[in-house]
Amino acid sequence: MHTRMIHAALSAVSALCISYPAIAADLYPTRTIRFIVPFPPGGATDVVTRLLAQKLNEHYKRQVVMVDNRAGAGGVVGSELAARAAPDGYTLVMGTTGTHAINASLYAKPSYHPMRDFVAVTPAALLPNMIVVHPSVPIRSVKEMIALAQARPGQLSYASSGNFLYLSGALFTSMAKIDMLHVPFKGGAQAMPAVISGEVATSFATIVSSLPQVANDKLRGLAVTSAKRFPSAKDFPTVAESGLPGYEAVAWYGVFAPTGTPAEIVAKLNADIVKALDSPEVRSLLLKQGAQAYTSSPAEFARVVARDVEKWGRVVKLSGATVN
Questions:
Q1: How many other C-beta atoms are found inside a 10 Å radius of the C-beta of residue 298?
Q2: Omega before 29 within 30 of 0, i.e. cis
């Protein structure tokens, strides 16, 4: 009798342990979720995260998602902090192509790995760029841009701000087999005026910063860097369709949790975030920021991350751009 009671008790404990994740997922969240943004307030990553946090708080019917900006070292500081957090669903990070694809090969000794240290939850947004030129430059298409660069090796200049925009240009020059002069700037606030003034001939710039200048005839837009035409810039062809087949350089933003976060919590987060991003209001606000809502399953997003770690690793190697 005593033995049967022990077995019954153990069975009950085992059943409780097995069902715990499901119960935890049903109750989640019960306390504050820290959503780390590895960049300063006011930037695109911060804007996307705060839009999402607001919709999640509306969904949970309480102020439970708190945004925590932890900028530094190109997104490394905040990403590393998230990677080392407890894997309980209460620390998330808004990763980017830079933090969760490019940094894996850009840094000689990376302090975290996007595949080993994180579980992908869902992408949140896509942000393609636009190739713009000063009106005095005699090119009106990507084909003409490539032809001019071939005729004047190392003379046609392009401005960039940040690793992703620089590597977008490096990918372009390597695929087109041309030599252009790269002119780096600390940020878009410095790069855009340099192109508007004619100091630099061309630029790989964000759509949201490019379109107003193109509309005011201060710059000429050649093409967008996405695989398909972008909703808020439908009049502009893609680079691939206008002179360089196969080219695509799109920054994605996506939600990650530390490795070890229960699958049931990841699944619930995915469902809640996808629902929030499917909101017409959020989609409209993102388009105004030059971004397009973009969601998927955790497994599909993990495949995208793996693909881009490899893709941008090749570009980093070709460019010789490494950080010790």
A1: 19
A2: yes
Provide the token pair at 236. Answer: 């502009």
For 6-57, what is each residue's pLDDT tens digit?
454 445 445 444 444 555 667 899 999 999 999 988 888 898 999 999 999 9
Buried b (16+ CB within 10 A) or exposed e, 240-249: bebbbeebbb
Task: Please check whether the domain covering 128-233 is classified as CATH 3.30.1490.20.
Answer: no
pLDDT tens for each residue of 163-195: 888 999 999 999 999 999 999 988 788 899 999
Which residues, 6 or more positions from 122, have their beta carbon under 8 angstroms from its beta carbon? 254, 255, 269, 270, 273, 274, 277, 295, 296, 297, 298, 301
Please state which of the four CATH numbers 3.40.50.300, 3.40.190.150, 3.40.190.10, 3.90.1150.10 is assigned to the domain occupying 32-127+252-319.
3.40.190.150
pLDDT at residue 33, rounded to an integer:
97
**Distance in angstroms (rounded) separating the CA atoms of residues 278 and 299:** 19
Q: Residue 67 carries which DSSP code?
A: E
Q: Which residues contact 155 (CB under 8 A, 6 or more apart)?
A: 181
Check: pTM over 0.90? Answer yes or no: no
Rounded average pLDDT over 236-263 = 96
